[in-house]
Amino acid sequence: METLTGNAQAAVPVGIVLVEDPFLDVGNGGLVTALGPRYRRVLEGQCAVLDAILMGCQAPENGGVER
Question: DSSP string covering 23-59, please?
């Protein structure tokens, strides 16, 4: 990158960011899908943090809906 001049030197970092962005979005979506419900229960006070980390905090069988 140091050998580039002017506009090319400015365009390369922009291109790198545009290429890596979809990969970061997919990774972030996967983490949110996998960990989101567990940590939501922690924030709602239904589970302790340590239980969520050790995967001891399970979802209610009925999906949390009161009957």
Answer: HHHHHHHHHHHHHHHHHHHHHTTSS-HHHHHTT--PP
